[in-house]
Amino acid sequence: MLKKRKKVLKFKSKLKGFSLLKDQNKLGLWRDLKEQFLIKSPIKIKSCFSKFIFGSSFDHAEIIIHQYCVDVFLPNWLGGEILANVFNASDSKITKPLPLSWIKILEKENFILNKLRIRINFILFIIRKFAQNIRLIFSLIYSSIKLKEEGRIFQKNSVYFLGLNPKNFPPNLNSEYNFDLISWYLGSTIFKSETQTIYHNVIEKEDIFYKNIEIKYHQLPFTYVDGKSSNFKFIFWSILAIILAGIELLIGKWHHALILGEAAENKIVELKNLEELSK
User: Fold this and answer.
1) Do 77 and 70 form a contact (C-beta atoms < 8 A)?
2) Averaged over 145-161, what is the pLDDT?
3) Among 39, 40, 140, 213, fewest CB within 10 Å belongs to which?
4) Contact, 278 vs 154, CB < 8 A?
5) What span, in angstroms and rounded, lies between the C-alpha atoms of 217 and 202?
6) The sheet that has 213-217: what strands, in order across it?
7) Cα dist. 110→17, 23, 43, 106, 113 in Å?
8) Higher-confidence residue: 256 or 176?
9) What pLDDT is attached to residue 8?
10) Nearest residue to 49 (alpha-carbon basis) of 277, 278, 237, 265
11) Cα 225 to Cα 236: distance, rounded to the nearest angstrom
12) Distances (CA, A) of 250 to 40, 44, 49, 115, 243
């Protein structure tokens, strides 16, 4: 009951914060803050280990981490916390995880922060993400070693759709007029006539044929590592990358731990023949 009451009070604070900003003609506050977050990079890449972990993406490492932080740390809930903070700063201190450079932006704008809670939440978030990334890497290694050969290689002249949901597939395979994403793509100008297969990562959808195109599930938008040499290189990279990211995390450098899963997927792409990758 107490938890529900706190939720209601927080929601009311957000509404009153919105009204207060409207009365003060400051509804652009959240947009202005986001612009500052987008300009201010959360990390400077100085580590000599970064080139090993980022590989071919090293030249864009700061941009990659910046964009990743924007996606992870700037969803709608932060805007809600800011609205509540505007109305009742003492009872609605911002506590969500944020990088230090972005905390300083909020401080400069005179927001009331619980800096200790923010830092603790940030550290816990990075640790959880690091654990998830390690789990992903081991699953990639397992898949590379154990999965059947025919499941590893994309058909030539194929495309991959990432992040679809079941509603994006043709509801009626016998109809020429379905209104869904796949049907739209097949009828669009970006569709290439030589395309034979569309891959996706919606596990609950069965493999189908639609308009002479095979539509089938594939877990990832790239093929698994195959071949003993490539497997050895990926395993060696994975072990060393986990150790290096872990050591840096212990001394307060969190960016490698955060991005490690994406770096592992990038490494697999580097080890693949371009002909085996979907478009």
Assistant:
1) no
2) 66
3) 39
4) yes
5) 6
6) 158-161, 197-200, 213-217, 208-210
7) 15, 19, 22, 6, 9
8) 256
9) 46
10) 237
11) 13
12) 24, 17, 15, 20, 11
Taking each helix axis from N to C end, the angle separating 228-250 and 115-146, rounded to the nearest 10 degrees, works out to 170
**pTM of the full predicted structure?**
0.69
Give the pLDDT score at 258.
92
What are 231-276's pLDDT values in tens digits? Answer: 888 899 999 999 999 999 998 889 899 999 989 888 887 877 666 5
Work out the mean pLDDT of the chain and round it to a whole number: 76
CB 277 within 8 A of CB 154: yes
Kindly write down the DSSP assignment for every residue of 128-154, as one continuous string: HHHHHHHHHHHHHHHHHHHS-GGGTSP
Q: Bridge partners of 209?
A: 214
More confident of the two residues 148 and 170: 170
Tokens 């400069």, residue located: 108
Rounded CA-CA distance 222/88 in Å is 48
pLDDT at residue 134 is higher than 90: yes
pLDDT at 132 over 80: yes
Which carries the bigger pLDDT value, residue 78 or residue 123?
Answer: 123
Tell me which amino acid residue 223 is.
T
The H or E element containing residue 37 is helix 29-39
Do the strands 208-210 and 213-217 form a parallel or antiparallel pair, or are they unpaired?
antiparallel
Question: Measured between alpha carbons, how far is 80 from 14 in angstroms, rounded to an integer?
Answer: 6
Please state, in angstroms and rounded to a whole number, the distance separating the CA atoms of residues 19 and 22: 5
**Two tokens, residue 228:** 């003993």
Give the residue carrying structure tokens 């986001």.
Answer: 34
